[in-house]
Amino acid sequence: MNASDFPRLKNITSAKAAIPPTSEAVPAPRDKHTPDYTWARVAMVERLREQGIIHPKILAAMNTLAREQFVDEALRMRVYDDCSLPIGQGQTLSQPYIVGRMTQLLLSAAIPVKRVLEIGTGSGYQAAVLAHCGCMVFTIERIEAFLAVAKARHRALGLLNIRYLHRDGFKGWPSQAPFDGIIVTAAPAIVPAELKAQLAIGGRLIVPVGEQGETQRLTVITRTENSFHSQQFDAVSFVPMLPGEQS
User: Fold this and answer.
1) Edge-to-edge, what's the strand order for the sheet holding 136-141?
2) Is residue 117 within 8 Å of 182, Cβ to Cβ?
3) Any idea what DSSP says for residue 80?
């Protein structure tokens, strides 16, 4: 892997300054034949800061996590580019900016965000970011094969603050509710009422809303004492949120 494969950094000093202090080192390559993606992660984090992702826990998590471990080997040369990547069965790993943006919106709630429900485990990367941010993560995936792979990846990384459920995401996880935050990684046509009902007072639901092929908007639903407050943010493009379960 050549340095030209990734965005140029101003210099080593500025690159290091772009990374918030963290006690966790970036995982070392397994052997001499394994590419070292360290500088690709440094470049990604610097780009995220320029794009407005400034929460120190998020930047530290995305600098620490080896994103290349969450995609097939054939896609690893592109894993730090600001684009989504296919993970199979019509699903994708969101681009780094979207992961950072959704996580930052989630953690900006007025209450401490300790318990988070994720709808759509996928590759497991978003759950890993949340876990590194100190959240207890409850992740639901409708495709059982994805759940098994994500769980194995998390266990290999020593992430023990994640719980898993094979289930239709529209139903949420009522036995574990209420949640301080809920993050949805696929787009429903409308915000699912059952997910809103599982929010704690002051909690936030982060969800891309819109029909496939139409403009989708990253939407933040905040639960108040008596109602729900909705805000729309970025135009986004997510795979549709589907009902049911699949092995």
Assistant:
1) 162-166, 136-141, 115-119, 179-184, 199-209, 216-223, 228-236
2) yes
3) T
Give the Cα separation of 93 and 121 in Å (integer). 10
Closest CA to 143 of 239, 219, 77: 239
DSSP bridge partners of 196 = none
Tell me how far apart the 2 most distant CA atoms of the chain are, in Å. 58
Which residues participate in catalysis according to the annotation? 94
* DSSP for residue 97: H
What's at 211, amino acid-wise? E
Residue type, 218: L
Q: Are 102 and 238 in contact (CB under 8 A)?
A: no
Token digits of residue 204:
């936030």
Task: Kindly tell me the sign of the dihedral angle through the C-alpha atoms of 247, 142, 123, 188.
Answer: positive
pTM of the complete model:
0.85
In the chain the domains, ranked by start, together with CATH numbers, are 3-81 (no CATH), 91-236 (3.40.50.150)
State pLDDT tens for residues 102-154.
999 999 999 999 999 999 999 999 999 999 999 999 999 999 999 999 999 99
Burial class (CB in 10 A: 0-12, 13-18, 19+), 79: buried
| Token representation of residue 60 | 């530290």
